[in-house]
């Protein structure tokens, strides 16, 4: 199978409280869900009908079995998900929407985790080369052997070797607890950027990757590094995407926030769907923005990923253009 989206990196069990608005010390019951950003993105794109797969590792334990079962439930190919040393990690979160606080507590990730034990020699480089979109995150570069595996994967699909309609996306996902310093992270990002065609991050993540500056300055630095589409999330002001010939801003899609943690992954999966659909960049951005908003209004991450009908319904409800309706849409229009 040729994957429309193949992601690499983190997977875990998300343990989210059923009690909203209280600290973890006061929670009486929890639900468990598939988690881990690259895995969530694969689930999100699968919800839009895309053929997706994940390259990752779990522990050889019941939580690992649960994650395999969940990936299959969401129609995500788990053939590149194999066991490695260590226990499958779990991530706890307190959900306090009134204060916009969603603190994460990582268990089973220090000093390492199975999904950081992906080895370069284990990769199916043909599958990585053939995937229409290959998605990785900065967190996957934080330690060996995962770092070398990520570099090998990117070197297997150089920018100059991509076919029309293929993209290589780097989620600038920077989590300080996994790094000795921002400078270390920036040095590792610099090794990957020459192979990347799309970079996605918020202000802090872009600053780690290419230095402090305005969103436009950060986008311009990403473009100067060879990226074709730079996506900078603007927080309450929405999200901007910039190419060498175009600058697009999508305003926020207002919803009542329940849990903001999965919104970025939903955005990513929907962004992938829009790219593969060949929509204009403005429509890709609006669609992804709405998909992120829907998940922010729900409790879980993977299980909350919306269908195309739900995204289009929200866009129409908010008076936004429906993607694909423009007569100017052509295959590969955003390249």
Walk me through the structure.
This protein is an alpha/beta fold and 335 residues long. It has helices at residues 37-47, 62-73, 125-130, 146-155, 182-192, 203-210, 215-224, 263-277, 281-296, 308-317, and strands at residues 5-8, 12-17, 30-35, 52-58, 76-77, 81-83, 90-93, 104-107, 133-137, 167-171, 198-202, 229-233, 239-242, 247-250. Strands 1, 4, 5, 6, 9, 10, 11, 12, 13 and 14 form a ten-stranded mixed β-sheet that branches. Strands 3-2-7-8 form a four-stranded mixed β-sheet. The radius of gyration is 18 Å and the shape is globular. Mean pLDDT is 94; it is low at 327-335.
List the helices and strands and how they pair.
Layout lengths: L4 E4 L3 E6 L12 E6 L1 H11 L4 E7 L3 H12 L2 E2 L3 E3 L6 E4 L10 E4 L17 H6 L2 E5 L8 H10 L11 E5 L10 H11 L5 E5 H8 L4 H10 L4 E5 L5 E4 L4 E4 L12 H15 L3 H16 L11 H10 L18
Parallel strand pairs: 1-4, 1-9, 2-7, 4-5, 4-6, 9-10, 10-11, 11-12
Antiparallel strand pairs: 2-3, 7-8, 12-13, 13-14
Helix pairs in contact: 1-8, 6-7, 8-9, 9-10
